Amino acid sequence: MSTDHVVDTKRRRFLVNSTSVVAAVGAGFVAVPFLASWMPSERAKNAGAPVEIDISKMQEGQLVIVEWQSKPVWIVKRSAKTLSDLVTLDDKLSDPASAEEQQPAYAQNANRSIKPEISVLVGICTHLGCSPTFRPEIGAADLGGDWLGGFFCPCHSSKFDLAGRVYQGVPAPTNLVVPPHKYVSDNVIVIGEDGEAA
Fold first, then answer.
1. What is the mean pLDDT of each run of 10 residues along the chain (198 residues)?
2. Taking the model in full, what pTM does it have?
3. Annotated catalytic residue, options 5, 127, 156, 181
């Protein structure tokens, strides 16, 4: 029997195993981008995917800003004093009862919110789309001695109270928008989905 027909099983096993490893790695390189394509892109998330925010550590008077649909969304924790001050402003506001429907039905109330102490607003002025500044200080000299806190748009001097309601005599025609949102627990808000308070 000649040695030409002897099979080298060690070499064959090595070649089979090496080929299997290379094939598995190649399959991984093909599968990962394919599976990743099923995940929403950052563009898709910005286009409207809901945003979850934990408000458990917010202090009274604090403003937290999150991004939803490429827009700033303000979350403000209001004090009992702020809430009582809101009702005194009605005669100074263009739309104190929020009749213009810039909020979901569950936020069409005196506070424009699900929970009175938490305000959720889109931080874009309804005049020309500037982003107002948070001015919580009471009696700010540059905003008038009767200022009770709110938002001031530096572009064209529009003013909004801490419920996002627009003052009379300013360029902004309507109140700030309340985005769709819901509570999934006492301290977690999902912006971009409608629902009732938890």
1. 66 78 72 58 62 90 90 93 90 85 82 92 88 86 83 90 92 92 92 67
2. 0.71
3. 156
**In the beta sheet, which residues pair with residue 152?**
133, 159
The residue whose two tokens read 């109330």 is 109
Sequence-ordered alpha helix ranges (H) in the chain: 9-36, 42-48, 80-86
Q: Which amino acid is at 17?
A: N
Q: Are 77 and 121 in contact (CB under 8 A)?
A: no
Tokens representing residue 100 in the block: 């213009």
CB-CB contact of 43 with 70 (8 Å): no
CB 68 within 8 A of CB 181: no
Whether residue 186 contacts residue 180, with contact meaning beta carbons closer than 8 Å, is answered with: no
User: Tokens at residue 71, please?
Assistant: 């827009």
Right CATH for 44-191 from 2.102.10.10, 1.10.10.10, 3.40.50.10490, 1.10.1740.10? 2.102.10.10
Q: Which amino acid is at 66?
A: V
Q: Is 127 a catalytic residue?
A: no
